Amino acid sequence: MKVTVFGIGYVGLVQAAVLAEVGHEVVCVDVNAERVENLKQGDIPIYEPGLTPLVQSNYEAGRLQFTTDAAFGVKHGKVQFIAVGTPPDEDGSADLQYVLAVAKTVATYMESAKIIVDKSTVPVGTADKVAACVAEVLAERGVDVGFDVVSNPEFLKEGAAVADCQRPDRIVIGTDNPAVENTMRELYAPFNRNHEKLIVMDVRSAELTKYAANCMLATKISFMNEISNLAEKLGADIEKVRQGIGSDPRIGYHFIYPGCGYGGSCFPKDVQALVRTAEKVGYTPELLKSVEAVNSRQKEKLFTHVEAYFKGDLQGKRIALWGLSFKPNTDDMRDASSRVLMEKLWAAGASVQAYDPEAMNETQRIYGTRPDLSLMGTKESALNGADALVVCTEWNAFKAPDFELIKEALSHPVIFDGRNLYDPVLLEEQGIAYYGIGRGRSVQSFS
Ligand code: NAD
Ligand code: UDX
């Protein structure tokens, strides 16, 4: 099938490559000319395991094309995916300007019937807005061709995006039109082999499903972070509590890992956007507002620990930081907890020596060159001359470090662990002070 994808970011690029891999002919359109040129040279703009060979092989096979030529893209695909960003606007609502810009572009060039698919995460009612926008432009042009707008939200996780798209848990299709449903079935047939994964529903329910999924996962995390704060005060160990409750299949082990707060391009903005959506229809979403508030506070947790340890005096301190991306296996720093920590450390007069396996370029892009940030080539060199070590992201490379080396390198042998990677007892035995998240035993020694 001929498919066009507008927006070559985390979602658009991965989805396009995976669709091309099963034989669809995919044209990717982006307004970012540099990105398009780089992709044509085989230079992949994001770090995502397995993505580079997938993109390169499908590009070479001619099944995957990259262009800034929107007219060419619109002409090509029977199905037109909108996979552009929906960042928060000033009040936290999803900003639909990029989605509606694509809708306008499609309507400007379409000469035959199209299925327009909202793949971006968009508030309930957006498909109606896209349809109205397309209809308006077609009327202005005096062109009478049919179109449908489908909601097909994306559930991929960064760091596992290729695998998630190749083997989705479910494929949600929001449409009331049986012919459109059939086309979407045909498109996704290669991913729907072993058991039925398509869940077809009305458009509004599909739009809400995406927000409900992300908000449910964010709620689980904030709940655990809340309990971890309580554990810290009560002298309990949240890691034991996590295992104790996760063993109940009604609760499960997924998404109950306490930490230094959730980040990334989805949870923070999607929880906020659903709060605004609710408020706009006159409903106060108390639970969601608390999920957001707990997370904002949790992102300050590591700084609070460091500040308490150094008795409020961080002026001139050098902090080694392991992990900058919002989670492992990605270079994405959007809403990463590391950013909150670094910015608070800098404001308090400390400097940061940071290392991340993939997010160094992104950190440089965001913060540029500044005297209080040193980007180090290895995790070991980040320790040199530092006063303390903070771990923000659970990359595999950080899971079994040389504790002797850490102890020797740091002027204060102390680790602040934002992902509970290490055993407090073991570190205590090695003579390293340890502050995890919600690990009562270690935090008691603050007092
Ligand atoms: P992104 O910022 O990585 O990429 C967006 C791309 O769209 C950019 O390359 C940008 O240049 C391009 N673009 C902007 N306006 C355009 C236009 N008019 N025409 C063509 N291209 C245009 O975004 P992303 O992370 O891929 O997210 C896209 C959407 O998918 C968002 O709504 C997001 O919430 C949702 N989503 C993201 C993830 C994720 O993990 N990143 C997962 C599920 C859903
Ligand atoms: C999320 C959703 O999982 C995915 O389905 C959706 O399409 C996009 O948003 P992503 O943001 O890529 O995916 O990563 P995810 O693995 O969900 O982690 C998000 C954040 O939550 C990270 O900062 C992570 O560290 C944090 N997290 C996750 C926890 O703090 N504890 C957990 O138990 C799980």
TrEMBL record:
One of its GO terms (biological process) is polysaccharide biosynthetic process. Keywords: NAD, Oxidoreductase. Pathway: Nucleotide-sugar biosynthesis; UDP-alpha-D-glucuronate biosynthesis; UDP-alpha-D-glucuronate from UDP-alpha-D-glucose: step 1/1. It comes from the Bacteria. Residues 320-424 form the UDP-glucose/GDP-mannose dehydrogenase C-terminal domain. Transmembrane segments: none annotated. It catalyses: UDP-alpha-D-glucose + 2 NAD(+) + H2O = UDP-alpha-D-glucuronate + 2 NADH + 3 H(+). InterPro entries: 6-PGluconate_DH-like_C_sf, NAD(P)-bd_dom_sf, UDP-Glc/GDP-Man, UDP-Glc/GDP-Man_DH_C, UDP-Glc/GDP-Man_DH_C_sf, UDP-Glc/GDP-Man_DH_dimer, UDP-Glc/GDP-Man_DH_N, UDPglc_DH_bac. It comes from Zhongshania aliphaticivorans. Belongs to the UDP-glucose/GDP-mannose dehydrogenase family. The keyword Ribosomal protein does not apply. Pfam families: UDPG_MGDP_dh, UDPG_MGDP_dh_C, UDPG_MGDP_dh_N. This is UDP-glucose 6-dehydrogenase. The active site is at C266 (nucleophile). Its EC number is 1.1.1.22. Substrate binds at F155, L156, K157, E158, K210, F255, I256, Y257, P258, G259, G263, K327. GO terms for molecular function: NAD binding; UDP-glucose 6-dehydrogenase activity. The keyword Transcription regulation does not apply. NAD(+) binds at D30, R35, T86, T121, E158, K269, R334.
